Amino acid sequence: MNVFLWVIVPYLCLAVFVVGHVWRYRYDKFGWTTRSSQLYEDRLLRLGSPLFHFGMLGVVGGHVVGLLVPRSWTDAVGVDDHLYHYLAVGGGLAAGIAAVVGMVILIYRRRTVGPVFSATTVMDKVMYAFLAAAILLGMWNTIAGSIFTLGGEYNYREGVSVWYRSFLAFQPDADLMAAAPIGFQLHALVAFALFALWPFTRLVHVFSAPLGYLTRPYVVYRSRDDRPLGNAAPRRGWDQVPR
Amino acid sequence: MRVMAQMAMVMNLDKCIGCHTCSVTCKQAWTNRAGTEYVWFNNVETRPGLGYPRTYEDQDEWQGGWVRKPNGRLALRAGGRVKKLLSIFSNPKLPSIDDYYEPWTYDYETLTSSPQTDTFPVARPKSLISGEDMNVEWSANWDDDLGGSQEHAARDVMLKGIEDKVRLEFEQTFMFYLPRICEHCLNPSCAASCPSGAIYKREEDGIVLVDQDRCRGWRMCVSGCPYKKVYFNHKTGKAEKCTFCYPRVEVGIPTVCSETCVGRLRYIGLVLYDADKVLEAASIEDEHALYDAQRACFLDPEDPEVQRAAEQAGIPGDWVEAARKSPVWALINRYEVALPLHPEYRTMPMVWYIPPLSPVVDVVRDTGEDAEDRGNLFAAIDTLRIPVEYLANLFTAGDTVPVDRVLKKLAAMRSYMRDINLGRDPDESIPAAVGMTGEQMYEMFRLLAIAKYSERYVIPPAHAEQAHALEELATECPVSEYGGGQQDLFGEGSGYPTPVAVENFRMLQDRQTSDTLAAPDDKSSRVNLLNWDGKGTPDGLFPPRNDGGAA
After folding, report:
1. Which of B26, B5, B44, B246 has the alpha carbon at shortest distance from B144?
2. Which of chain A's residues have a Cβ under 8 Å away from the Cβ of B471?
3. Does the structure show a pLDDT above 80 at B62?
C-alpha cells in the first residue's frame, strides 16, 4: 500500500503531467490560453486575481525552498531551525492567506457573476476543487501542524522533503511519507492529482509565463508562414487512392 | 537603407455616405462567430462623436500608444516591460464590455410560438453575454448621424480646446463619417505590448497579425493599441484584429471593406519605406512634425537607387512595379492630400485619410454663395476654424497648416474641374494657387473621382511558388482533414484552425448535398440565411409544422 501511494501514484501523475503537456502543446496550441474573463467583470477580478496569483507565486517559491533545499544547506549558511521555522511559517502564512483570500474572491466571482459562471467549463470546476483542496490542506498543515503542533511535532524537512527529493532522484523512499502526519499525506496526494489534471486544464497558462518579453525586441517581424497550420507537419495535399 | 513593403490604405472621407456597408460585410466575413459579437474590425463613426469603443481617443484614460520620454526615447504609454508583467494578472486599462457595448440578439421565437393574445407579441432583446433580458442602451454606432449628440458628442475627446466654440445643436454643427480599420502601423504598439510575442508584422507586406497559436490571452494588446482595434474574443480567450483580409490580398483582390464600399472611397496599394528610419521618425519631439517625419520614411519607388535597394532586400520586381502604380503612394506623397489618423500616438499608422471638404462646402452653400468658387471656398476654409481645427486634432496632432493645405487643394480641384466640365477654358491660376500644375490637378481629379477598380486597388499577389501555402487556396492538405479538436473538453475553438477557404468550401458543399437545404445538422437552431437559396424549409427557420391539425 505504501509503495502504491508513495511510489506508483506519484510517478503515474508525473508521467501524465509531462506527457500530457507535450500532447496538449502539440495538439491544442489554440486552446492554450488563460481564458481570461476580465471582459465580463473587472471590479472583483482587479482585487482577487493579483492577490491570488502573487500569493501563489509566494507559495510556489516557499515549496521550492522547503522541498528542494536540504536542511544541511541552510545549516551551512547559518540559518538555525528556529529562524528557519520563523521565516517559513511567516512567509508561508502571508503568501497562503493572500492566495486563500484571492481564491475565495475569485470563486465567489465565478459563481455569482452570470457571464463568468456560464463561461466555466467542467474541467475548470474539477480543477478548482482540487486546487482549493490542496491549498486548504496546505494551510491546515501550516497552521495546525507548525503553529499549534496538533498531533505532535513533525519536521517535514526530515520527512516529506527528503522523500520528495528521493522521488525526484528516482530512488523513492516510501516509508518516509508513510510516517508523515495524515495532513501532509492528503496534501501530497491531492497535489499529485492536481499535477495529473494540470495539462488538461487552463493551468497550462502557467507555462506560458511571458518572461521572454523582458528581453525580446518590441516589434516582432515574421515572414509569411511556410506552414500556416500550427506546428503539425504539413500534410500531403492529395488523398491516397485506396487499392 | 532597409527597404520594406507595406500594404496601405487611403480613404477619401468626402465620399463616405455612412452606409456601414463596409462594417456589415466585414462582420459577415470575419466576426460573425461566438465571442466576437461585439467586435467590429471595421466600424464607421460619425464625427464629432464618441467613437467605438466610447472615447477611445482619450489616451490619458486608456494609455494606448507610445510616448516620447524626456531622454528622447519612445516608451509605451501604459508602462514598460516590467510594469506590464507585474500587472498581467489584471490589466488595469482594459476597456470593459460596456465601453464597447453589450451585444444582444432578439428572442424571435416568442413571435411565432406565442399563444393568441390581445397584444402583439414582442421579441425582447437578450444579452449575448449573460443570456438575460437587457435594455439596449449603446452600440458601436449609437450616435450615428449625430443621434443624441447634444448629450454625447460634447465628450468627444477631439473637441478639447475648441469645445466652447462648437455648437452641437442640429443644423448648426458639422458632421462627417470616419470609417476605421486596424492601422497596420509601422511601429505597432499592440505588438510591442504583447507579452507572448504573438502579434507580428509580416515582413512581406507589413500586415499586422495575431498568431492565434501563440496568443495566451494576456490582453495587453487591447489596451496597448491607441485605436482600440485589437479585440478580445471572450469565447476562445484570444486576441483578434483586422487582418487586412490577408487571404484576399495575397491573391491580389482587395479587402472585403474596400470591395464592397459603395462610395468607392478606399484605395489600396503598396508603400515602400525605410525600416531603419521608422523609430527615429516616431521619436521626433514636435508632435506637429510627425506627419512629415512619417512621410520622410516612405521611399520613392521611381528612384533607381530605391529600386536597387528593394531588389537587394528581396522585394520582387512586380511588387516594386506595383509600388510605382500605387494610388496610396500618389495620394500621400505625390498629391499630398492624405493624412494619417492620430500621428501623435507615434505608432506610424498606415491607413490614411483625405479629410472631408464637405463641412466647408455645406456652410458656403447654405449661405447661398457659390460653393464651387475658389475664392468663396478659400475664404471659408480660412474663416471656418472649427471644422478645420477639429480635423487637425484628428489627422495632424492639432496642426492646422497641413489640413488647410489639403482642403485648399480639394477646393481648388472643385473649381478647376467645374470650368473643364462646363466646357470653359480652365483657369490655370487655380492649381497654381495651391502649388500644382493643371495637369497634376487633372490627374488627381481622375484618381479621386473616376479611378477604376484596377487603379484604386493595385495589389500585387503573393508569388505563385508560395501559392500552395496561402490561406485562400488552402491546398496544403485535403479539406477532409481539417478541423477536429476537443471542443467540450478545452473550450470553444480548440484543435487545429480551419482555413477560411475550407470553411467556405464546406458551407457550399453542405448546401449542395444536404437534404435539408442549408441547415447544418449540428446547428439545428441556426440557419445561415446567406446560403439559403429559398428552396425547402431548413430546420429552425420555421416553427415545426403541425401535421395533425389545421395548418
Report:
1. B44
2. 228
3. yes
Q: What share of chain B is helix, strand, coil (3-state, %, to 5)?
A: 40, 10, 50
Alpha carbon distance B438, B442 (integer Å): 6
Q: How far apart are CA B4 and CA B320, in angstroms?
A: 10
Q: Please count the other Cβ atoms lying within 10 Å of the Cβ belonging to residue B392.
A: 23
Stretch 172-231 of chain A: residues touching chain B, C-beta under 8 Å: 200, 205, 208, 210-214, 216, 218-231
Domain boundaries, chain B: 256-456
Nearest Cβ partner of A28 from B232, B480, B495? B495
ipTM: 0.85
CA distance A135 to chain B (A): 19
What is the rounded CA–CA span in Å between residue B442 and residue B431? 9
From residue B485, how far is each of A26, A190, B494, B509 by CA, in Å? 12, 29, 6, 21
Specify which residues B180 forms β-bridges with: B43
What is the pTM (predicted TM-score) of this model? 0.84
Alpha helices in B367-514 (DSSP H): 374-383, 385-395, 400-421, 429-433, 438-445, 453-456, 487-490, 500-513
Query: How many Å lie between the alpha carbon of A171 and the closest alpha carbon of chain B?
Result: 35
List the domain boundaries for chain A.
8-32+43-208
A118 touches B: beta carbon within 8 Å: yes
Judge residue B425's burial from the number of C-beta atoms within 10 Å of its C-beta, 0-12 exposed, 13-18 middle, 19 or more buried. Answer: exposed
Q: Which phi and psi angles does B45 have, rounded to 5°?
A: -105, 145
Whether domain B256-456 has CATH 3.30.70.20: the reply is yes
CB pairs under 8 A between A and B: 179
CATH number of A8-32+43-208: 1.20.950.20
CB contact under 8 A, B490 and A29: no
- Residue B99 near residue B54, CB atoms below 8 Å: yes
Q: CB–CB of B201 and A222 under 8 A? A: yes
pLDDT digits (tens, 9 = 90+) for B417-446: 999 999 999 999 999 999 999 999 999 999
- Closest C-alpha among B85, B78, B37 to residue B232: B37
A227, B470 contact by CB (below 8 A): no
CB-count exposure of residue A144 (10 Å: 0-12, 13-18, 19+): middle
Quote the pLDDT of residue B550.
Answer: 46
pLDDT tens-digit series, residues A169-191: 998 888 888 888 888 899 999 99
How many residues in chain A?
Answer: 243
